[in-house]
Structure formats: C-alpha cells, structure tokens
Amino acid sequence: MNAKSLLQPLAAAALALGLAAPAAVAAPQWVGTWSASPQATWGAGFALPNGAPERLHDQTVRQVARVSVGGGRVRIALSNAYGDAPVTIGAARIARSAGGSRIQAGSDRALTFGGRRAVTLLPGAPVLSDPVELEVAALGEVAVSLYLPQDTALRTFHWEGRQDAFLVGGDRTADARLDGGQVLQTRPFLSGVYVEAAQPVRRVVAFGDSITDGAASTPNRYRRWPDALAQRLAPRGVAVLNAGISGARVLSDGMGVSALARFERDVLSQRPDSVVLLMGINDIAWPGSTFEPTRAAVDAQRLIDGYRQLIAQARLHGVRIVGATLTPFEDALPGSPIHDYYSPAKERVRQTVNAWIRDSGEFDAVVDFDAVVRDPQRPTRFLPAYDSGDRLHPGDAGYRAMAAAVDDTLLFGRR
Q1: Residues of the signal sequence (predicted)?
Q2: Angle at which helices 300-316 and 259-266 pack, to 10 degrees?
Q3: What total number of domains does the chain contain?
C-alpha cells in the first residue's frame, strides 16, 4: 500500500472528528541529476583529435558519473542523436562506483528497456531505461556499463569527458572490475542519469562551451565549475546539470550544434528553475583562426541577437536565465596547433558583448566571471593563479572561484 492510500482513511477519520486532514505526501519526482550533451564525432581532418574509437564490436564500455542529487531509484538516458544507423545495446547495467573501473559489491543492477535487456537506438533518437531500485547518495558515483555486440560505428559521444571510461572485449557488464582494456576520456552514447527524488528538487543547468565542460581541469577529480557548484548545492536539494560542449558556439555548429539548435534538448527538457549561460568566446575567436581561417568575423550585435533568442526561449518556459560575462583570452593557446585565436579586434568584440551582458538588464541576473578571473593589472588576461596555463581556460582554482560567484540570489532570485 502506498503513502497516498494510507492517508485516505486517516483523512476521513480526521474530517469526521472535525480535525484538519493530514498534509498530503509529495509524490516522488524524476529529476535529471547528471548529463553529458551529445555531440557528433569527427574525422582526422579536424584540428583536434577525436580520441574515441571509430567502431565498437563485441565490447563493453564502463563510464563513471558523479550525480548531483540522490534518490532511491535510477534510470539512464542513451543517445544516438548523430547516428545514421541503428545501434544495438546487448546489455546495460548500473552500479555504485568503487573507484576506477570497480563497482561496489551488491550494488550491481541490470537495466531494462521496456522490460527487455537489449535495446536498439534508432538513428537520431534517444532511449530511456526502465527505473531500477538503487540507492544513490547526493554526490555519489555510479558506473554505467554498456555492451555492444554488433559492429557499430561510433557517431554520437561527448568529447570532453574529464573522466576515465573503460573499454574491454566481450560482455563484461557484470564484472566487478574491468582490466586489460583501453582507457577513454570520451563518453560514448551515455547522455543522462535520472533519480527518483522523494523531496522537491530545484534544477540548475550550466549551458556553455569548454569552460563549462571543464577543459584543463584535473581529470577524475570533479574540478569543473559546475562540479564545485554541485558540491555546494546538491546536499541542499539542488540538481546541477552540466550542458557544456567544448568548442560550442551560440550561432554556429562546430564541435556540436549551435546553442540555438540544442537549447531545447539540452536545457529546457530538464525543466530547470534556472540556466547559467556562458558561451560566445568561440563565436568571436574561431573565425580567422586555424578552426575557420576563411570565415568572416562575427560582430557583437549578431551575438547579442543570439542571446536574445535564448532569453526569449527561457522566458517562454518560465526558466530564469543568468548571463555570464566572457572570460579573458589574450594570446590564448600558445604553443598549440591552433593559431590566431586571439586578436585585438576580437578583444573589442568581447568587451562590447560583456558590456551588454552587464548593463542591458535583459538577463534575469548576471554573474561577472570576467571580473572574477581576470588579472587587475592586465584585464585582457587571466589572473595567473586562476590560469590553467593555456590563457583560455581556468585551472582548478579558477573554476572554484567561478563557482563561488554563483549564489542563490543569482540562481533563484530573492525568496
């Protein structure tokens, strides 16, 4: 008998005696607790390496994810968003992680899809697993193991995993640990983890590029700024979801489709209370660089028009949208294969865009990440203590400082 049916006779008795009826028990709700935005894989001709196998066949991949909020039941989302052929998952399992490729004894659960152990991901489509009983704590780690029995082209993944994944031969989804295989830093097919939460949960989505995706942060240590934000907020019943894609842009496709194209899928589908938008530096910097040597520059007004569309979409769905200023990038990526990423003309565009973000009043709130991480003596560059060394991405300390600048008033308004 569930809580609701237990309360019904109590409520009737209370009314007969002239007493107040007991308060209704809130129904459990499914909430996203972890996400990795799907991207299309790319070939050898691109400026950055893919880092993922081109094909999988009779192999198991185990991926580890740290959830934000916890719950008593879990389910996963898989994506074949960019595949041109069906993908068969022969078996899938979830367990609490014991570190590395290991899983906690007694926590392993078989996942089903419509009651079946195997599932086919159709081209372009996502798949959601059935719920399974598994107690997961806030900020706990889960290990998701997928077996691919057939020869499968890998076309959908998340590139900037910042977390080891383990690839071995055969169906080893139930193994306590996976040894002797390949270690990946990408995330094939896995796009989300959901928990059934007994208490109301507020949701925050961090929507951005490589600086939200955590480029240059320490792998396997959860040092991205959304990770630090989750560390603070998840124990208070706030889910923090990372919808960053390295190389992402507001207006154009690149290492992922544009923000305008994926906002509904990666942000609004999570039914968030608020979204923090930090994106635009690649719109400014890619044209004329090694990425796009012949593309015309993007002016500030075009980027602002793109922000206005995202603001309008957020407001249409009742989502609070927080604008984040673009961080410094003078002389970015020294010694790398990427040239001409920065120029004084591009810096002027960044300054114009940041002035609009700060002063226009069009966002519901503003977090000034630029002011947080820049060097006061040279504002076009990172403060050395916050720089990862590539003059584009923060290091771990910079990411912590960014997360510390995001408070409840910014995210939820005054309550």
Answers
A1: 1-26
A2: 20
A3: 2
Percent of the chain, pLDDT > 70? 93
Question: Counting Cβ atoms within 10 Å, is residue 198 exposed (0-12), middle (13-18) or buried (19+)?
Answer: middle
- Convert the pLDDT of each residue in 356-414 to its tens digit: 999 999 999 999 999 999 999 999 999 999 999 999 999 999 999 999 999 999 999 97
CATH number, domain of 391, equals: 3.40.50.1110
Would you state the pLDDT for residue 291?
97
- Which amino acid, residue 38? P
Q: How many whole angstroms from its chain centre is CA 115?
A: 28
Alpha-carbon dihedral of residues 244, 247, 250, 253, nearest 10 degrees?
Answer: -120
Q: Is the pLDDT of residue 5 over 50?
A: no
Confidence of residue 27 (pLDDT cuts 50, 70, 90): confident
Same structural domain for residues 368 and 332? yes
Measured at the CA of 9, the angle between CA 4 and CA 13, to 5 degrees, comes to 135
| Entry pTM | 0.93
Overall size of the chain counted in residues? 415
What is the residue range of 231's domain?
201-412
- How distant is the alpha carbon of residue 15 from its chain centre? 48
Integer Cα distance of 145 and 94 in angstroms: 6
User: Which tokens go with 281?
Assistant: 């530096």
264 and 116 both lie in a single domain: no
pLDDT of 1 > 90? The answer is no
Name the one residue in this structure whose structure tokens are 């270690």: 183
Whether 208 and 188 map to the same domain: the answer is no
Mean pLDDT of the chain: 94
Could you give the 3-state DSSP secondary structure of residue 366?
A: strand
Give the number of other CB atoms < 10 A from CB of residue 359.
9
The answer for residues whose C-beta is within 8 angstroms of residue 93's C-beta and 6 or more apart is 108, 109, 110, 111, 144, 145, 173, 174
228 and 131 both lie in a single domain: no
> Nearest Cα to 50, choosing from 214, 212, 211, 184?
184
Q: What is the pLDDT of residue 415?
A: 54
- Torsion-angle region of residue 16: left (phi > 0), alpha (psi -120 to 50) or beta? alpha
Q: What is the CATH number of the domain that holds 95?
A: 2.60.120
Q: Cα(first)–Cα(last) distance of the chain, in Å?
A: 37
The residue among 192, 216, 235 that closes a domain is 192
| Amino acid in the structure at residue 56 | L
Closest CA to 403 of 365, 372, 361, 359: 372
Residue keyed to tokens 């009826």: 21
Cα separation, 369 vs 406, in Å, equals 9
